[in-house]
């Protein structure tokens, strides 16, 4: 009887410590990527809302960098969402806003800086309220 109890306990321990199948791991990774991407999109939207609320001249680069920075900190999904949203925004704005290629290039530089983990305060203008 003791032998069977020991075998049962050992089997339970071995099964509990066994790794998950590769398919299950991939599904979990995909779910985390999607969760990070959704959170990153939220970070980007929050930075956009703050930029609109602040309505501070010369602060757009700061908010671009901050949104990308916050999104990228979530992980690969957040960085991917930040890149897709930033690229789409710049492609759309470059044809509509009339600010020119130089402004688009500087916006993209700030986007990249934030996604690479650079401090967004590099682009913070003097006088921007501290709540941002």
UniProtKB/TrEMBL annotation:
<dbReference type="InterPro" id="IPR052464">
    <property type="entry name" value="Synovial_Prolif_Regulator"/>
</dbReference>
<feature type="signal peptide">
    <location>
        <begin position="1"/>
        <end position="18"/>
    </location>
</feature>
<dbReference type="InterPro" id="IPR000096">
    <property type="entry name" value="Serum_amyloid_A"/>
</dbReference>
<dbReference type="Pfam" id="PF00277">
    <property type="entry name" value="SAA"/>
</dbReference>
<feature type="compositionally biased region" description="Basic and acidic residues">
    <location>
        <begin position="100"/>
        <end position="122"/>
    </location>
</feature>
<dbReference type="GO" id="GO:0006953">
    <property type="term" value="P:acute-phase response"/>
</dbReference>
<protein>
    <recommendedName>
        <fullName>Serum amyloid A protein</fullName>
    </recommendedName>
</protein>
<keyword id="KW-0732">Signal</keyword>
<comment type="function">
    <text>Major acute phase reactant. Apolipoprotein of the HDL complex.</text>
</comment>
<dbReference type="GO" id="GO:0034364">
    <property type="term" value="C:high-density lipoprotein particle"/>
</dbReference>
<keyword id="KW-0345">HDL</keyword>
<keyword id="KW-0011">Acute phase</keyword>
<comment type="similarity">
    <text>Belongs to the SAA family.</text>
</comment>
<feature type="region of interest" description="Disordered">
    <location>
        <begin position="93"/>
        <end position="132"/>
    </location>
</feature>
